[in-house]
Write a structure and sequence with these properties.
globular, Rossmann fold, alpha/beta
Amino acid sequence: MDQLTGKTAVVTGGSSGIGLAAARRLAAEGAHVFITGRREDELRAAADAIGAATAVPGDVADPADLDRLYDAVRARGEGLDVLFANAGAAGFATLAETTVEHVDQILGVNLRGTLFTVQKALPLLNEGAAVIVNSSVRADDGVEGFGTYAASKAALRSYTRTWANELKGRGVRVNAISPGPIDTPALSGLVSAEELETVRSEFAAKVPLGRMGTAEEVAAAVAFLASDQSTFVLGANLYVDGGENQV
């Protein structure tokens, strides 16, 4: 603990799941955390529970909302040391089922939203800052119905390498994480209540460790990449997948 004392962090999609767990962990390490998300009541409740946190409601797909987020960070006057670009959208659609609306939704949040989340943070990033991009193991495989989502996450992996190269001269480290099946509230948004336990069992069966991961386990990886424990890690992709895509 206390690896981030005096630091300022931003976590997008910070009201639940991986984002909330990461915000809690960064705050526990001593950072003041700005969290953003579309569900205002849930976001403010999360900030209250975290304590050392500021809620700035907004949608990363809306550049004006990102401007409001970074205006709040700027007003604090201490720059930005950690950015976890976590906000994401997911949804099933096979090639035959894919619509313009589906593509716009997924790419609008995952690709465009993440791109401008990082771009608009550039003037605030302090020397030695850490940027962590949330990708996914789905970028590496061909799970049916996840084509657009997987493509968006693969693009983020590519962006991570490029941004790491472009920002290294400023001492800013850019890395990605790729969670595997993580048991979060988002899962219930993808399947019906009747299907939920079956899906959990199917996900767990594919993981060598025999279970789904927790948001707190992903948050631990985020804290590592945010801290001085990872100062020689650049452009990497840290898998938090229980070995699903590794062994």
